[in-house]
């Protein structure tokens, strides 16, 4: 007679592993692969010779492919089994901000800190707001724009950075030997961090594929970059309209180049260090 404490395989109930809940691998679902710790958003599921796989993309645009195996992933710290989605997934998984951070439903904006982030121009500020706006409001960080960096030393002196009053600055085309690099070196200090991306203009920090073009065109030095770009792409010579079109194609951090993503995250971390309280 078979004991009621044992199943057909004679495994004691207390030794059986509880099945992990099955979760559809919908596009943009953010999970962590249990064995490697790689965290990213689902890009696609595919059938291969070895079985079904899922491709994840991390916040820097790196892709990795993993098999769909039982108990193979973590979702919000909980072990789950990813399965093929039943149908088209929603464009964005609830619970994530455009920057990839965990959303805080109903969170009220924090009173603004004395610390600030400065960017070069209005387009830079609008792009940062588009992707990191939710994070900045929760952290109480205000972003302002400079209209160029030539007057940065005077602006920093007027801001009077110090303990509890940090200043982060994002600069376009921050490369060794450039005017921007020399100005940044003059103002950088314990309470001032200047970082930058290599692009001539922040437009280039938007991935060409997101805008629907093969690549950003090369514009000769000395020619207005925005006007030259519009001409070479066959767009009307209306840079405000062009920027409106570009910005409309940015929905999350996935639409931006890693060279910009890392720098903005670095500035947010800098101006929200514990000594800001």
Short key terms for the protein model shown above:
277 residues, alpha/beta, 7-stranded mixed β-sheet, 4-stranded parallel β-sheet, 26% helix, globular
Structural class: alpha/beta
Taking the sheet with the most strands, its summary is:
7 strands, mixed
Distance between the termini: 69 Å
Give the low-pLDDT segments: none
Order of helices and strands: EEEEEEEEHEHEHEHHHH
- In terms of DSSP E residues, the strand content is 15-25%
Strand order of the largest sheet: 1-7-6-2-3-4-5
Number of strands: 11
Alpha carbon gyration radius: 24 Å
Mean pLDDT: 84
Helix content: 25-40%
- Overall shape: it is globular
Number of helices: 7
Quick recap:
The protein has 277 residues and is of the alpha/beta class. The protein has seven helices and eleven strands.
Give an overview of the whole structure.
Helices cover 26% and strands 20% of the residues. The chain contains seven helices and eleven strands. The protein has helices spanning 122-139, 152-159, 179-187, 208-211, 225-233, 239-248, 258-271, and strands at residues 22-24, 30-33, 39-48, 51-57, 63-67, 73-75, 78-83, 116-119, 142-145, 167-171, 192-196. The strands form two sheets. The chain has a seven-stranded mixed sheet with strand order 1-7-6-2-3-4-5, with no helix packed on it. It has a four-stranded parallel sheet with strand order 9-8-10-11, with helices on both faces. The chain is globular, with a radius of gyration of 24 Å. The model has no long low-confidence stretch (mean pLDDT 84).
């Amino acid at each position: 007679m078979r004991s009621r404490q044992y199943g057909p395989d004679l495994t004691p109930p207390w030794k059986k592993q509880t099945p992990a809940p099955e979760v559809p691998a919908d596009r943009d679902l953010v999970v962590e692969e249990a064995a490697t710790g790689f965290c990213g958003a689902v890009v696609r599921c595919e059938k291969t010779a070895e079985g079904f796989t899922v491709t994840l993309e991390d916040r820097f645009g790196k892709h990795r492919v993993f098999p769909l195996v039982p108990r193979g992933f973590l979702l919000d710290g909980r072990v789950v089994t990813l399965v093929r989605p039943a149908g088209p997934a929603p464009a964005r998984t609830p619970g994530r901000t455009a920057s990839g951070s965990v959303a805080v439903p109903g969170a009220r904006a924090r009173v603004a800190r004395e610390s600030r982030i400065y960017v070069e121009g209005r387009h830079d500020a609008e792009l940062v707001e588009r992707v990191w706006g939710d994070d900045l409001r929760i952290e109480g960080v205000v972003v302002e724009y400079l209209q160029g960096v030539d007057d940065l030393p005077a602006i920093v002196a007027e801001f009077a950075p110090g303990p509890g009053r940090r200043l982060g600055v994002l600069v376009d085309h921050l490369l060794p030997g450039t005017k921007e690099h020399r100005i940044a070196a003059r103002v950088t200090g314990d309470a001032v961090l200047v970082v930058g991306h290599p692009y001539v203009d922040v437009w280039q920090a938007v991935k060409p594929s997101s805008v629907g073009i093969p690549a950003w065109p090369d514009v000769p030095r000395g020619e207005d970059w925005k006007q030259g770009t519009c001409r070479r792409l066959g767009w009307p010579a209306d840079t405000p309209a062009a920027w409106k079109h570009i910005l409309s194609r940015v929905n999350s951090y996935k639409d931006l180049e890693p060279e910009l993503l890392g720098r903005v995250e670095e500035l947010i971390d800098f101006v929200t260090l514990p000594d800001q309280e």
